[in-house]
Amino acid sequence: MSNFSFAEWSNLLDQWGASSSSSSSNAAHKPEKTIPTTTSVEKLIKEIENPLTREHALFALSRNRGIRANLAPLLWNSTAMKIMLHLSNRLLLGGYKEWEITTAYRVMSSPDLLARATNNVCNALVLLQCVASHPDLKMNLIKANVPYYLYPFLEAKNKEKQYEYLRLTSLGIIGALVKVDNAEIVHFLLQYEIVPLCLRCMEVGNEISKTVATFIIQKILVQDEGLRYFCSFAERFFALTRVMGTMVDKLVEKPSSRLLKHIIRCFVRLSDCPRACDGFKISLPSKFRDATILNLIRDDPEALEWLRQLFVNIATGNRV
Known about the structure:
By secondary structure, the protein is mainly α. 67% of the residues lie in helices and 0% in strands. The chain contains 19 helices and no strands. Helix 13 (207-222) runs parallel beside helix 16. The protein is elongated and about 60 Å long. The two termini are 25 Å apart.
């Protein structure tokens, strides 16, 4: 099964320049390529508390991959993580990130989304991805209801570049949480209605956002609760298959083998439910038999086998 890693998301952000030189301040403070010591990392974390040094500190920490093995626990246990806690939450993410994120809410409500504000927020979200990727800290974020703070970014319909940065980095945090199968995390996300937000991102996001959102749906479906969520109610099932069908149709014009593989995996998992197999008789994308689509995975025996299994399950109703 194809999985995203934190490093891959970070590389994608580099490719897009989500935290790059659109801000002259960021360009002036670009960190050196040498790997920072633990002492310098702690100093940068401390600088997040100071509004005058916050921007540089967020940028420097988010761009240095060599320190991320130790960065997550250092961040989570820092004073900066607690200094501006929301009073209504017992275990909420540190004040500086909450300040950056909630500030972006106000910016997003205005006609102009400021590039500099977006950069700061994306850098904070990249650090959140770091914490979400840490096996010992995932549940801390869940217990703190941190994913809920990302929802305004995932709800946005705007397709402009700045919104796409926020959409992708927010999806990256959710993707990092679900990467390792965990029924408790999936239960939380379903309770907090993450599915409609992923469907929104699959509709309005660009290719990478669509891919990460589909990956999240795939990981939700792995859990039995996730499969029941979609297969117990016809409107949920058809909402998902409609969105995925639209994405498959668009792959004819803008091919993406990675996105296609995640879509196929979702369909295969859905076909584990006999009721879903009945639904596929009217909702399975016809493009799955299109030569253009098949050519995307012709050199991928695993993906071809998934597609074959999907057709077998539908043909038998998965009742054998």
